[in-house]
Amino acid sequence: MNLRVKQYFLKLQYVQFTQTIKNSFFARCHRHCIKSNSKFYNFSRMTFSERCLPPLFFSGFVFCHQNSFPATIEKSNTFNSPRSFYMQSPKYVTLTHELLPQLKAPFMISEHSPSESKMDATSSVHIPWSALESDSVKFNVTELVSLQTSLVQDVYNRNCDFFIKGINSIGTLDNDILKDCFRLFAKLKNVDQRVIKIFEQKCCDQMDLWSVETVLLVCDAFHLVNYHASLFNMRMYDYMEKRIQSLSKHNIIQLTFLIGENRKVPFLLFKKLQKRMLDFKDLFTVCEIGVICDGLFKSQTRITATRLLTNFEKCIKLEDLRAVESHSIVGICKMYRYSYFGSESLFSKIACEIVDRIPSLHIEAITHIALTYSTLHMFHAPLMNTIAECYVWKIKHGRCKDVTKCLWSMNTLAHVPPNANKFYNVAVSEIRKRSVEYKRFPNQLTAALLALAYVDIYPLDLIHYIFSSEVLDSIRKYKQISGIDLRPDLHLLNSALSIDRPLFKENKLLKDFLKEAKLPDDVHANLGQEINKKQFLKPVISSISQILEDSNVIKPRFILPYMKTIGIELRLSHRSNELIPVTEWDNLNANVQTISPASAMVQKIIEQTSIPPENELKLNDTGITRIAVMLWSRNHYRFGAKENVESRCLLGLHAMKRRHLMLLGYKIIDLPFFELEHIVGKEQGLNQYLRSKLEILYNK
Length: 700
Hints:
Shape: elongated
Structural class: alpha/beta
Oligomer: single chain
Number of helices: 34
């Protein structure tokens, strides 16, 4: 790396150094500075790097002659920084690069020997604080900021009361004193809350006198010094709402970024801001689109203007993503997932670009990418294989939600990665290690075990744990805090366990737990409403009735105890080889809830060897053949199943439903949407199609 010392030079670099490389690099820089009669500063403050520059280690280097402060910024590799958009244009206003040197304790060539006490050093510093005129206060703040970081805190502590009076006496906060105050806050390890609150109130009082750029600058600076200025933020939103039509493109980008940092935005401001964005919809770069998407996602705000998302999509497709930061791409993925806006060509391009970057990304970013593709049902095999490979060694650095969401994403897409055994072993191991964390977030534990159930994996110790009274109590408390009722998911898990592992008797979900309060309305779907809502269902029922010449032998119903997917059930008698009327089903004691011996046999086989083919499973002959006619809609498959044969794979939950029907002894007749779309509306064609599907009845 070629380093040249200029009179004013600031180099910012985000690198993950090994300790050896870092030490040798510092040594080379130090030697170079000594030859040039320059001072060398290395600043490091993890709270700032974690807040603004995740996930990489931040290292900054400042070269300046004597006491001159660097004023020119040289662009460098900021490939994963959420604030890197500031580098894209000089029209952005920020104190980032002026505060950065203050945010880490500098290494300075000092005349004091290391043995001299700190009190000796501070006693030699004298700054007059008696005069309270604004010019004097401005001068004193500037002098205080110019001191060594090791001295600033002591001098500030001794003169804090004078500083409070000085802030109150200031008539107008101009740009110079604003910058000096923020530099001071950045240098101080402990700031008296009275000081910064008075300063915040002063900023609020003078906000109407400032330009839009100054307001954005101050809001950003509060975040840089790690102070949550809630009062200033509220006033800032009101200020921006009144001036929404005067905001430039760069103002919009910076405002959206700050909305994300504040984690909330008033609804009325967002509606006006979204409308204003449409005026610049063709001018945004992909980096700026990433800032908008990430900022709104962090504030839990969904882009509702489809025209805006469509224009963003066109812009992303036209640009070379190799020059776009990973942080921007991940931000785009978040918002398109949150807005549930899918585009096969867009996400295919993103997948081709991001797949090679996956090993260098933090596990949280990988989780967002995996979750986006699974939520939108987008499947890209190389991407999912790379995620599964990196998951194995990165997940130990993640949160419990990362463990769960990556697992859920893989199994929702019904994808078996090449390292499936290791992937699932690591996932189950991490769930066991994080039992305390999962107890705080039982929704994540429930989702993780359901994701494993999709692929017929049941860690019985974890099943026993989640159904224990201890965890059920934490689930009750979680509902009181969050308002999220986990009982429907627990019912699904318990029902799946009863079918896949009927011999498991240790600890199951108590029925009393499900009856403690009224279940959510969507748990028990209305059959009539679902029939009217389900595409193709009415024509299929009518056509089957015509073919069989009897509508009393078919019954549309939710066949499985947990399933809201309607199936058409028929039952065939072995003796007469005729269909049994629905009114006689109960008399034959052939209730569908009864567990088939097949599932018990499968459990025994799973514990010993691999699963045999279906035709090798010998069931007890009850004299009845159960038949389930299943209509699989577009949402039951991966995205693009109509055009792409490789995408004609049922998603995890629906694949589990089909497996359970087979274990309960059903013969399944699949009616996928991509076949029905071509023939529904043509009566003869539909009858002929269904007749060929129902040949099982006549063959029997």
